[in-house]
Design goal:
This protein has about 350 residues and is of the alpha+beta class. The chain folds into two domains: about 10-185, Elastase, domain 1 (Roll); about 195-355, Neutral Protease Domain 2 (Neutral Protease, domain 2, Orthogonal Bundle). Helices cover about 40% and strands about 10% of the residues. The chain contains ten helices and ten strands. The strands form three sheets. A six-stranded mixed sheet has the order 1-5-6-4-2-3, with helices on one face. A hairpin with a 4-residue loop joins strand 5 and strand 6.
Amino acid sequence: MNAHSSHIPVFCTIVPPHVLDRISRNADAALADPARRTLERDASQRTRRRITTVRMPLAAAPPSVADDADKKPERTIYDAKTKEELPGKKVRTEGSKPSKDASVNRAYTGLGATFELYLSAYDRYSIDNAGLPLNATVHYGEQYGNAFWDGERMVFGDGDGELFRDFTLPVDVIGHELTHGVTQYTANLEYFSQSGALNESVSDVFGSLIKQYGLGQTADQADWLIGAELLTDRVEGVALRSMKAPGTAYDDDVLGKDPQPATMDDYVHTGSDNGGVHINSGIPNHAFYVLATELGGHAWERAGQIWYDTLTSGDLKPDCDFSAFAAVTLAKAAERYGDTSAEHGAVVKSWSQVGVTPTEN
């Protein structure tokens, strides 16, 4: 089956289950209870997504035919009002005035920032390249400590206020979740083991690029952190993940220590979290960081272009591993820039530095 012939929606959260699981076992009920409820909600959403996927596979989207001038986002923001029914009450639509609710406005702006990067940098017209409307729901659940893409929309919790702040705060979280949608409509990477870690990593890469694009940062100026605004002051940590230095994002009595490896030497073999999709994503994340800083300038330009060409190439099998993904990045770098180019050489170096040997699946 061609990877583009059907799109399997997956339920993807920004906070990994292993983090919430640890918090849920804390002796302090103010920390443990919201984490336990968040885990339970995530489990039921995951089950619902599997059922609807079996019943109703999405049709492939036709390529975009609109003129560039007509390519505008179509955003709708809903408010769940701390309930768990989706989508909630419609509170802001495309072009309407800002809300008095900061979460609504941040979600609206974040959807727009994501749309803008994909259109301006890669000529991609929304998630499906055919102008797919962008929908988001804020204030989901009580003290819900996560944000997710459910195959149809973005959903944000308010956090517990103890460990996690409002999930609309970091624009890279919004970009991360929407990029799961882009992956769903392109490479369709299976959400398990190395292909799942690649699915997560691609979302981190473009989430970070969306933040860098909005701030006008070069690769050297960027912090390469995912979710830097999420953690409260009581947490010993700077973010959920670090692409620059996987494994250093947090080291906290409640959250534990960031388990991400930066190289294959420390690859984590685990049965939890779909085979460690949020953990081993540190390896391709770090490869992209090495590539971007090696090339310098704006990371969304050359480094991001190579990753985007790879994701949308049709050459990735849904179950591809790190080595197969690396092989396609090399092929795409050679195709666009030449096999003796600085870009191609930097891709070779980036995978070598994390211990991945490019080989075709």
